[in-house]
Amino acid sequence: GVFTNVPLPDNELDLSKIKVIGVLVGKNRQAMIQIQESANKASVYTVHEGDKFGREKAELKAILPGGIVLVEKIINVYGQQEYLETVVPLSK
């Protein structure tokens, strides 16, 4: 893959294509995520807690030793705001 510090391409990012390939825990937590852009191209980005990305503007709430936690704000069928939490585990 390609390693870069370029910001995530948040407007076209599909959250289902995120793969967590590394985490750094400690005072300043960071995670390395890989995004498969095409059949033969994948890019790696470094993200921090509080970053927002994807079409859904999901927020990276926690970086844990076993993966990351993303939280999205959605509107349910009753028109009320609701939060959807997704855990993306560390890839093997």
Layout of strands and helices, then pairs:
Elements: E1 2-3, E2 18-24, E3 30-38, E4 41-48, E5 52-53, E6 58-64, E7 67-75, E8 81-89
Parallel strand pairs: 1-4
Antiparallel strand pairs: 2-3, 3-4, 5-6, 6-7, 7-8
Average pLDDT for all residues: 85
Strand element count: 8
Number of helices: 0
Instruction: Give the radius of gyration.
Output: 14 Å
Describe this structure in words.
By secondary structure, the chain is mostly beta strands. The strands form two sheets. The chain has a four-stranded mixed sheet with strand order 1-4-3-2, with no helix packed on it. The protein starts with a strand and ends with a strand. The mean pLDDT is 85.
How would you concisely characterize the structure shown here?
With 92 residues, the chain is an all-beta fold.
Pick out its properties.
mainly beta, 92 residues, 4-stranded antiparallel sheet, 4-stranded mixed sheet, 58% strand
